[in-house]
Design a protein that fits this description.
about 35% helix, DNA polymerase, domain 1, alpha+beta, Ubiquitin-like (UB roll)
Length: about 160
């Protein structure tokens, strides 16, 4: 027997029946076909599943979909507007803040949350703000540069 939830995902109203145990990441990927949010460790360590719920960056692999009833959820797909990349997405592209790309959606979601709360972070603050997101490819230098570039573009 399912539970009916109503929420807003990327600005669109969504009403679905879900099992009580359905994780938000699986709801987004499997029920809504929003596959930009990745499943990594499933323990909230890697951050590949980071999305925004009511303006806060959360790890969707440890959040139940039913806990988001009534919430506003934004995924990586919801950052772009009118066919234009979000400044953070553009900065990751310009600064080559990605390699394999697996961590990139979660990293971008964490970074946009950081700039929403601190539009002009220092390098140390950027590193602190992204510490819950792991990347095994880039060495982080270009990710830091991308966040700094986005901060300059938005500021």
């Amino acid at each position: 027997m399912g539970i009916t939830i109503e929420l807003e995902v990327n600005g669109q109203p969504v009403k679905r029946e879900v099992e009580a145990r359905t994780l938000l990441v699986h709801f987004l990927r499997e029920d809504l076909n929003l596959t930009g949010t990745n499943v990594g460790c499933e323990t909230s360590v890697c951050g590949a599943c980071t999305v925004h719920v009511d303006g806060k960056a959360i790890k969707s692999c440890t959040q139940l979909a039913v806990q988001c009833d009534g919430a506003k959820v934004t995924t990586i797909e919801g950052l772009a507007s009118n066919g234009e990349l979000h400044p953070m997405q553009s900065a990751f592209w310009e600064e080559h803040g990605l390699q394999c790309g697996y961590c990139t959606p979660g990293m971008i979601m964490a970074a946009t949350h950081l700039l929403d709360n601190n539009p002009s972070p220092t390098e140390a603050q950027i590193r602190e703000g992204l510490k819950g997101n792991l990347c095994r490819c880039t060495g982080y230098q270009n990710i830091i540069k991308a966040v700094q570039t986005a901060a300059g573009a938005e500021g």
